[in-house]
Amino acid sequence: MLPEIDFEKIGQRVKQARIDKGYTQAELGEIIGCSNNHMSHIETGQTKVSLSLLLKLSYALDTDLNFFLMDTPYLEKESIIDSEIADKLSHCSPSTLLSVNKIIDILLEQQERDKKPTSYY
């Protein structure tokens, strides 16, 4: 069975991108060809946004489609690495980058420990 899509989280990302670009719901709705009421329903997750409308939103907001899928199981893993994490790391000082590297090493070690079966004697 395929995982469910959380349209509320997609809507939150649409809203965030819209606000970042300085559009009102009405302005963005006009650009992509829907009403501001429909935009409101998309942003609150009351309406399941279609793929074609999500593509229009991506284009109109000059935002990668993967941004809207960030909180879904359908996001391409590489997208997180390439955009979100890389952008954040670009603002770090060298000493912070060393700390981040150590934290990642610890998380990877923990992940490997979690994979190993636990034996109880």
Structural key phrases:
121 residues, mainly alpha, 434 Repressor (Amino-terminal Domain), 2 domains, 7 helices, flat
Descriptive notes:
Residues 14-68 form the HTH cro/C1-type domain. The protein is flat. Helix 2 (25-32) packs across helix 3 (36-43). The chain has two domains: 1-75, Orthogonal Bundle (434 Repressor (Amino-terminal Domain)), CATH 1.10.260.40; 76-115. The chain has 121 residues and is mainly alpha-helical. The mean pLDDT is 86. It has helices at residues 7-21, 25-32, 36-43, 51-60, 65-68, 77-89, 94-115. The longest helix is centred in the last third of the chain and has 22 residues, at 94-115.
CATH architecture of the largest domain: Orthogonal Bundle
The helix content, as a percent range, equals 55-70%
Terminal residue distance: 36 Å
Tell me the series of helices and strands, N- to C-terminal. Answer: HHHHHHH
Oligomer: single chain
CATH-defined fold name of the largest domain:
434 Repressor (Amino-terminal Domain)
Coarse morphology: flat
| Tally of helical segments | 7
Mean pLDDT: 86
Structural class: mainly alpha
Keywords: DNA-binding
Domain HTH cro/C1-type: 14-68
Pfam family, one: HTH_3
Organism: Anaerobutyricum soehngenii
Helices, strands, pairings?
Layout: H1 7-21, H2 25-32, H3 36-43, H4 51-60, H5 65-68, H6 77-89, H7 94-115
Helix pairs in contact: 2-3
Compact description:
It comes from Anaerobutyricum soehngenii. The chain is mainly alpha-helical and 121 residues long. The protein contains 7 helices and no strands.
